[in-house]
Amino acid sequence: MLYVLLFVLGAATAAPSEAVLGESAPQEPPEAEVPILQCPLASETYPCSCLHVRADTADVRCYEIQPSTNLQKIFGLVSKFQISYLTIADSILDHLPAEILLPLDISVIKLSRVNYTRLSFLNDLARIYPVPRLLYSLYSIEVDRARGIDKWDWSGFQGFSALDRVIIRESSFPRLTKSFGSLPNTVTEISFEDIRDMESIAFGALARLHNLTTLRIKGTPLDVFERNVLPTPAAKLRVLDLSKNRLKSLPLDFLNEMPALQVLSLKENQLASLAAATFAPISLRSRLQLNLARNPFNCDCNLSWLNLLFSKNSAIFGTDLEMQCSEPAALRGEFLHALEPKDFQCPRSYNLLPFQRAYDSNLLEFEAERIPQPAFLSQAEASLKIRK
């Protein structure tokens, strides 16, 4: 009986204390809701449209802009967003005034089917204080089927500290000059694709871009690509795509000082022969991807080294193996890698090209006994051995 009484008294005294403790415990305030921004009405931004992507991010697309279009008003309405993509298409613009871009935070600018003759706003932005947000936010410029861009003053981009890539497709760009190479050193990727009127690339055009990791110049009428276009050394260059051009030959120093190169595409050019010494700096790399498909190869003694390289390190050629002989007539249509070393013949009186000799089946050896060694080739580059 005494135990029951004590139990009841204990329960009675514990309940109030628990209530007191419960009342004194701090209550967490409810989380404040983050307001979701809303795009302006389509009628307010015409001929542009605002596409809501996330809470504070939007894409803005403008089509058929006319000289009378009030872009400053339109961009002012969307300035509260971080703009992932600003697309301007099907428009004729003399210039884009700097003041309309001042309040914008843009990651990617895309110009499509635009006749755009000046980029004066870039130089204007660089002189404005306080510094516009665009200088720190612009990551990529993509140009598609545009005219007049070869006349831009590309040095205007120098103040854009976040710019990483420039992609130009199906546009008019007859000559790649040093002006283009004055892009900021933050740029790691450059692509020129299907530029049907590109005739030449200036000496040292990209030599200042030491952080370049990817370069694509493809689908152009270029028949020459010199090593001096790129930085020396091109220490970070991993991808070099020169496919679908009209290259007829490669300089002997073409691949010098490219220690990081992993992908080299020369497919669909007009290459009839390749010097062994040109590829000596990269031939032993196990991770290399080399594409030489669909070139009109002359399978004579000067190209026997390539056949032997395939037999020793076939993995670097990947799966695109359409390396066929165009000459001599007896080998026309034959796949280069399927031939035997004895098939690569030259007339007895034929003088071998520099650094190209006959090789036995166990040793691929590039030497220079009869012809003086060029200064740019080290002894290691002039003597490359691949053993079983």
Describe the protein in words.
31% of the residues are buried. Helix 7 links the parallel strand 14 and strand 15. The N terminus and C terminus are likely disordered. This protein has a domain of 124 residues. Helix content is 16%, strand content 21%. It has an eleven-stranded mixed sheet. It contains eight helices and 17 strands. With 388 residues, it is of the alpha/beta class.
Order of helices and strands: HHEEHEEHHEEEEEEEEHEEHEEHE
Q: How are the strands of the biggest sheet laid out side by side?
A: 1-2-3-4-5-6-8-10-11-12-13
**Envelope shape:** elongated
- Total number of helical segments? 8
Q: How large a portion of the residues is in β-strands, by DSSP E?
A: 15-25%
Share in helix: 10-25%
Which structural class matches the secondary elements? alpha/beta
Q: In this structure, how is the largest beta sheet organized?
A: 11 strands, mixed
Specify the oligomeric state.
Answer: single chain
Question: Which blocks of ≥5 consecutive residues have pLDDT under 50?
Answer: 1-9, 11-23, 354-388
Distance between the termini: 98 Å
What's the number of extended β-strand segments?
Answer: 17
Any idea what the radius of gyration is?
Answer: 32 Å
Give a brief outline of the structure.
This is Vasorin-like. Pfam families: LRR_8 (PF13855). By secondary structure, the protein is of the alpha/beta class.
Labels describing this entry:
eleven-stranded mixed beta sheet; alpha/beta; single chain; 21% strand; 8 helices; 17 strands; Leu-rich_rpt; repeat; 388 residues; two-stranded parallel sheet; Leu-rich_rpt_typical-subtyp
